[in-house]
Request: fold
Amino acid sequence: MKRLSRRRVCALVLAGAAVVVAGLSGAAGAASTRAVSSDVGPVIEFWDGATWTEQASANPEGSASLTAVAALSATDVWAVGSYGVGGQDGKALAEHWDGSSWQQVPIPTPQGANEVHLNGLSAVSPTNIWAVGSWAGVFTGPVEGYPYFLLIEHWDGNSWTIVRSPSPGVSKQLSGVVALSADDAWAVGYYQFESHQTILSRTLALHWNGTAWRRVASPHPGPRQYQGSTLSDVAAMSRKSVWAVGTYVARVQGRHFANRALTVHWNGKTWKQVSSSTPRASGGLAAVAVVGPDDVWAVGSYHNGHGGRVLTERWNGHSWRTVPAHTGEEDASYQTLTSLAVLAPDDIWAVGSYGAYDTGDQTLSEHWNGQAWSVVPSPNPDPPLGGSFSAVAATSPTSVWVVGDFYPEG
Reply:
């Protein structure tokens, strides 16, 4: 049986028709619900203004996967993920680029963790960087599989430390983080709770005030008996303008349900849902990026009943509108964009992956030039390896980084 990559699993769930998302992790920088496979390796690629080239990763012992990246300058880039030996004993992974090479940097793993996922990364300065995700130990609750606990880590310029976080529900995960200053940061994800012997999920938003992380009420739309809403990513324009995106389960007709794109906005006082423009199909959003007050982008995927398609939406200050984007392959069973990097209104990158049930994952990168999205050819690891992009970060038109993973086919 062919193993599906973490990104493909997320994409299939994200775009799957009429499912209850009681454990959906979204897509971009999103949490996985499996341990690191013994045949997974990290992918790091660099755009120099002309082509993508594969870079050497500081691959630790065993398998590894990189899921988030943040760039402060051309000589100061961070990437995080997880690694393990033989698919077991998952540990947190942090790597740093100093302008000449990638080096592994010690980062703590929670005591008793058997599985660790760092899904979101945000850098304010060389001494203020946040990483968020989740970890699991052994089965101790009503959730199918391992119950997950929140994981938030901070870099102060010298070392990474675990920072205490709230713990709602029976299982929870963080997928995205954005930091504006030393006393203003947001992290988003979801938490699960039990209702009438059913595990449901709700959106989760946490705020850092310089002293502690506190939970802030966030919308969780959808029918109460099938509640399944998640937030996958967050981006900020200012203290009074923050966007988060994700997925929720909506009643579409009678007893039929489907995933829908979820967009919510923080106005400085409360989070409020804003109508999105999901196609008439099942889908959701995985990443968001702010260009300006009246210019915000969100990407993800949807399923039109025949195959997967990438989804790109744009906020114009009044409403969200779907913008055509290219697909990696017309007959692909899934296609998804999982991360965004903005350099200018006419210079935006989106990355992800695509593939079919009987073929391997392929990396996908697209560029917005102010007028249209176009696919930019990106290398995949030499056959028989499949690859996928998880996250992208950029400091200039000639300095763009993307991270992900690869795995053998078969």
